[in-house]
Amino acid sequence: MARRWTLAVVMATFGLVVLVAQLAAGLPVVGGVEFLILLVLALSLSPWAFPRSAGAAMAQRASAADGRPVVYWRPGCRYCLQLRFSLGRLARRAHWVDIWLDPAGAAAVRAIIGGNETVPTVVLSGRAVVNPDRAWLREQIRSS
């Protein structure tokens, strides 16, 4: 669980160190701006940037029922973050599975990819796509 937050905590801590250093140098505005930028980055790298994760089994059942894709991801993955932000509000219409939080999700990804945990991996109607084209996924979500 802690590993999911490591990158975000490191980024926020670094922001705090920068703020203190800038305050000591007599530059409170610069320090405040830099701190806010690093805090926004920390939040975007945290699990909070993604829709609530479901377990792999629950996501697969829900996908079979509603036809929406299952997206396997992990915190700190820049490709997952790019995919998430490119989807915007449509991201809520997919079933997200955090492979660091759900061992069954990690096992599902390893089974799909042949032993690796490469994310993002999207499963839609039984078809798995690793690092999907964002425009393609947006279209698939809109049509589901």
UniProtKB/TrEMBL annotation:
Coiled-coil residue windows: none
Record has NAD as a keyword: no
Domain Glutaredoxin: 70-128
Residues spanning the membrane: 35-51
Keywords, ordered alphabetically: Membrane, Transmembrane, Transmembrane helix
Protein name, UniProt field: Glutaredoxin domain-containing protein
